[in-house]
Amino acid sequence: MLEVNGLSVAYGAIEAVKDVSFTVAEGQVVCLVGANGAGKSTTLRTVSGLLRPRRGEILFRGRPIHHLPAHKVLATGIAHCPEGRKLFATMTVEENLLLGAYLRRDHDIARDAAHVYELFPVLGQRRHQKAGLFSGGEQQMLAIGRAMMARPSLLMFDEPTMGLSPIMIQRIMDTIGVLRDQGTTILMVEQNALAALALSDHGYVIDLGRTTLSGPGRQLLADPRVREAYLG
Amino acid sequence: MATLAQQIVNGLVLGALIGLIALGYTMVYGIIKLINFAHGEVFMVGAFGAHFTSAYLLPDAMPWYAALPVLCVAAVAVSVTVAVLMERLAYRPLRDAHSLAPLITALGVSILLQEVVRVFYPGATAPLPFPRVFVDSQLTAGSLIVQWTGVLAVAVSPLLAAALHWYVERSRLGRAMRAVAEDPDTARLMGIDLNRVILATFVLGAVLAGLGAVLYGIHYGQIDTTMGFQNGIFAFTAAVLGGIGSIRGAMLGAFCIGMVKSLAGQYAWGGAQYDYVWVFVLLILVLMFRPQGFLGRLERVRA
Q: A2-77+153-231 falls under which CATH superfamily?
């Protein structure tokens, strides 16, 4: 479904991503793990069109998308739930969800919002409150809900459990599992490799801007090199 | 007493007109953090667009209710065209440049537009009389004189500001504008086309400036190439005073400035020749005690 080949991305003279390649098959949960600064977020930001690659290609359903601006990448069916949640803090829960559905012109937007409120009742109860007033976990729920509103076929999560309590981490991971079961393909970036790889069909280790290891999630979890480097 | 009432009326009218320009400053700043110093010129070219239409295109005798809408359309068309060209040719190429570059460009565009109109518009080297296309009479109460054109400006300007506020709060495009203002990258992840939304912001500001230009012309009866610069400075000050980025703030700031300028011109030391000094005294005082302006939010550094 998504194929990234030999990706290289630079900020000015600094090459944050040097040589990253991976594939995401339809219906899978795929996880990129690696240390802080390894280039995971940069990779996602390039897939979603916020950054331009210096080299390499990104194919979605066989078609190159690395030249598309971000709003057109979303239109192909790739949504990005960014690191740090990045909610519109001065806007209400409802407005945030409506922005998630910005490109949609159909009449099911209200029904999809109701579905998000069903999934996360706290959002429904406080739908007219400003997003900035919510706790970290609640904000992450809203960020996930907002990304779902675009009805993506591929949903990318950047550090969805960052700064959350263990209970909330489990809740978020369960939700991602539910999304997968409902047919959404998931690409995830996590420092919390244990929780992420346990959920993943396939994992890639990114180290200093390069994909170094790959394999089924549980196999990577058992790999001594991975355990040593990322699981402690 | 009669003088005081008269100056209050004059101040309200001036505030209403400045407010329509201030809205453009505050909207563009809100969305791309650019003080578009050429926005005063968007207002000025609107006035000349209306003048041109009246002088060269319209028949001499037209009832005001026919002529006024035509002039409004003409002014808005010229203002919007200039604003769109300005954004596409001058600001968009500098979108990712250091913020000083677009600021200096804005000053350059401002001077360019003033000079182009002054040099190429017939007779624009001196002030031109603006067509009297509204009820050219006045209300009198004792010695108090209120022009109908002033009544129109004071009635229409807050209505337009309210409409703009409603649009930004309630419409899909308005929501996109607020999203871009708050976080452009995340707005792009929502599928928002930054260029379109920014252009739309310039267009909305230009529509208001064009309408303001016609209201200004019919009230003061003459226009000149420096009207944009002078009133633009007041409008920019109004936007800062009210809290830049805030629509209600821009209107509030504009009425404050109109009032201070009018009353200080009458009563303060120095008289009408120094009236603008008191406007900036007010600005400095407000910024000392409330740097974000009346209704502005303090800029917070994002984590």
A: P-loop containing nucleotide triphosphate hydrolases (3.40.50.300)
